[in-house]
Specification:
- By secondary structure, the chain is α/β, with parallel strands linked by helices.
- It has 9 helices and 12 strands.
- Helix content is 34%, strand content 20%.
- The chain has a 5-stranded mixed β-sheet with strand order 3-2-1-4-7.
- Helix 8 links the parallel strand 11 and strand 12.
- Helix 1 crosses helix 2.
- It starts with a strand and ends in a 9-residue tail after the last helix.
């Protein structure tokens, strides 16, 4: 039995997952924003509730909006800023009296969709989050890749490939650079470029739903940018499938249009990589956290 925890900015979600992927229990509680000690306590209380009545001690995986720095053991790159600089995995391990596995929320999404989701039959999977930010995770043969810097899959903070003259100035990114993929492909990035080109102040959701010529032009430009960015990923890791998640993954046309474009940017005569919508949708993060212990069955 596995427990998965998705530590979000406003809510903490937990599930109890059976060995065959069935969700047996699901609970949500508000995140104690700005309160690290309260966050630890909320996770522990959630685990206690989910584990009540179980005859065995469950494994615990936690998805976080950041990652654990290998050199310090402390949380870095978290937009839930009260976690930054804290030994979250260490503190949870002691509070729960068992090992706990932590991973970035985009990594958990990739793990979920590669384990029993849209790409369950694939050897190499790149999971993508297109939302307020842009993240990614890499799963090979159902094992999550991390790397010595704990940043595997962080494609959002590479420069947009093959930028046109109008793109080359590049919007500033919170990471300190300009022209990052995230500044183009995030929801706010799409909205900002639409406003820059048209003067219209629309959200990414509104741009996708309206059929005006201006919105169509913005979506066509977005599709080309997504094809370029994913084409560079295909050139490096050559995944069997790419699964899109996050709010912008609800734009259905991406799944048919982008593979028609990325051929221009991939160093191969044919491209058989599949671009897939998620099977588990918004539940993929918490499911992927539970599946962080999937390899225990393989040992």
């Amino acid at each position: 039995m596995r427990i998965g925890i998705d530590l979000g900015g406003t809510k903490i979600e937990g599930i109890l997952l059976s060995s065959d992927g069935e969700v047996l229990q699901r609970k949500r509680v508000p995140t104690p924003v700005g309160n690290y000690t309260g966050t630890l306590q909320s996770i522990c209380d959630l685990v206690d509730e989910l584990e009540t009545g179980q005859s065995e001690i469950c494994t615990i995986g936690v998805g976080i909006p950041g990652t654990i720095a290998p050199d310090t053991g402390l949380v870095k790159n978290a937009n839930s800023t009260w976690l930054i600089g804290k030994p979250l995995d260490h503190d949870l391990m002691h509070a729960l009296n068992r090992p706990v596995r932590l991973a970035n929320d985009a990594d958990c999404f990739a793990m979920s969709e590669a384990t029993d989701g849209a790409a369950a039959d694939c050897h190499t999977v790149f999971g993508v989050i297109l939302g307020t930010g842009v993240g990614g995770g890499i799963v090979v043969n159902h094992h999550l890749l991390s790397g010595p810097n704990a940043i595997a899959g962080e494609w959002g903070h590479n420069p947009m490939p093959a930028m046109s003259p109008s793109e080359q100035s590049g919007a500033p990114c919170y990471c300190g650079r300009s022209g990052c993929i995230e500044t183009f492909l995030s929801g706010p990035g799409l909205a900002a470029r639409h406003h820059q080109q048209t003067g219209e102040k629309l959200s990414a959701e509104q741009i996708a739903s309206l059929a005006t010529p201006a919105c169509e032009a913005s979506l066509a430009a977005y599709e080309d940018q997504l094809a370029r960015a994913l084409g560079s990923v295909i050139n490096i890791i050559d995944p069997s499938a790419i699964v899109l998640g996050g709010g912008l993954s609800k734009i259905d046309r991406l799944f048919s249009n982008v593979p028609l474009i990325w051929d221009r940017y991939v160093f191969s005569r044919t491209v058989v990589t599949r671009l897939l919508p998620p099977k588990h949708g918004d539940s993929s993060g918490v499911r992927g956290a539970a599946w962080l212990w999937h390899d225990e069955e393989d040992d």
